[in-house]
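Q: Hi! First time asking for a complex rather than a single chain. Here are the components, and I think there are two in total. Is that enough to go on?
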Amino acid sequence: MRAMAAQGSPGGRRRRPALVAIDGAGDASAREVTGPATADDREPDGTDAAGAEAGAAAGTVDAERLSDVDEWGRSQHMRDLLAVLYEPIYERWLRVEWEGFEKLPRTGGALLVANHAGAIPLDAPSIMHGIERDLGRPVYGLGDEMFKRIPLVNVGWSRLGGVQAHPDNAYRLLREQGHLVVVFPEGARGPGKHWSERYKLRRFGRGGFVQIAMRAGVPIIPLAVIGSEETMPIVAKLPTLARLLGLPYVPITANMLLGPVAALVPFPAKMRIRVLDPIHLDVPPDQPRYSRSKIMDTSEAIRNAIQEELYDMLRRRRSVIFG
Amino acid sequence: MGKRVLVTGLGSFWGGRLAQAIEKRPDVDVVVGLDTREPTVELERTEYVRTDESYSLLSRIVRATQVDTIVHAFLVVDSTQMTGRQMHEVNVIGTMNLFAAASQPESKVRNVVVKSSTLVYGSHHADPVWFTESSRRSALPRHVVERTLMEVEGYVRDYAADNPHVSVSLLRFSNVLGEEIDTPITRLLRRPFVPCFFGYDPRLQFVHETDVVRAMLFVLEHDLDGTFNVAGDGLLPWSEVIALCGKRPWPLPPVGRGLAGAVLGRLGVDLPPELIDLLTYGRGVDNRKLKAEGFEYRYTSAGAVRMFAESARLRSTVGDEPRYRYERDVENFFRHSPAVVRD
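A: Yes, that's all I need. Here is the structure of the assembled complex.
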């Protein structure tokens, strides 16, 4: 008796929409291998078919996105918002001036390599803002994984174009998507250096940026930046506190000496950014490994070129504030 | 002669659905399903065998049924379902025994498909945005479910290396969403307030449950060999996923995340440690390898979220549908009784 009752119900249940959706899936993949789909053997099930039709031309179901956050976490909307806020700092406070801006490519990938300075290094936002405003193309900034660890910072940083400095990320950005990517090979050693060591470039990492450009087959464009050292000079450091907080450095800046509000205000040093000639690396792309010596030679050459250029720009600079 | 297919984990969500899809194919002669639990979906001709993961039973079944295809769908990826020790037994020991059984000299197995998870990549702040099949983890696995899955993959690789005549495919699925599936993530997204960690907005990737079944059948059909990521196109911030589902975020403190997870677990909000990592750092996997083989996804990540949100709205209005209940006597009657007229 019980068996009879149970027998009746499975038949009725067979037309449940959700089960049919899965059935449709089975049919669909059978179709893929047996031959092209005909128009009428699409989804037998109403809701799913409607979804499939509403999707893209290929029959893929997609959805209206609610934000414009891309795969890297960058949001053009947030960038535009920052541009409005940063424009006065860029134009009136730091009065950023570019030399050789025309050397930056309008299309295709390129790796921009710059020096990095100031307790809160304003060279990064200035480079990104300037290029995005005047060249009209996005710039992604490779940064330390530290940014991804800190709450709030990780969201703001990635929405504004920051990307974890992983070789796979850089390869995809440069080679597959042809973006402009800026990297600061000194890392935290650049901004974290004492005032007395200003404009003396630190070690350029392990030359990873050269390997990235080699693998991606894109040119390296060195940038020399002056002015950011003076926006927020470090007069002392608190290494114990930095260790406790897990940060690369905790600075005491000259700005802090002027009071709590002034601590976050950069000094109005004139910022100049000079674009050096693009370096085309003479190696085939997509190799698993490149010669270490070639990587280190190139890395050192670029470091020396930027260092020379910095000294040249400093020789011509009459005033820190007026340039 | 048609295929003879063995489906492990018939009582699981995936095992049942895969068996349903496989038994519809005309080129399949026999479908045998193993599990300790009864099937939860209706099956036409799949033979259900109640068995645990012990070697002696598995080897006898493989010998007796002469299966040539194994669909290994019983791996547990939801750590809220059982303790770490049970998960080790089911995932690691079960897989070890299954592959030992499949590598007997008299075994006829020529095709194996394993359903793994992108949990094997972990979720860490040093991760690349996109993991490829050959990417390494950024950090050692810290959670039991990740460790067991990595051990399982080790057995799969060993088996593939020892049996070059067998095509072994290992599919790593990202987080699944859909109309029916129940995972810790879907349970979170059905709440009016969805937990998130203040100051973090990770980007996640989803795959629709239909695409999961389609992908498994696709690799079976094409005898594909190797490891493949299966995930929909695109990454979505968690905040946007919550908004797409029409829910509100419930920010939890960014420090002491594990503690928050433990407390919420006590209160009935499942937040297993691997999900805490995911909701902090996110994860993306490169799905182009399977696409290059000709597989076409029917849902993007955002599409999967949309389908889930729509079905959740429907369910909140009309309630759950009645569940299927397995009746052994009835099923046996239909399959084996001479009273049933078959054509």
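A: Chain B has one domain: 3-336. Let me know if you'd like any chain examined more closely.
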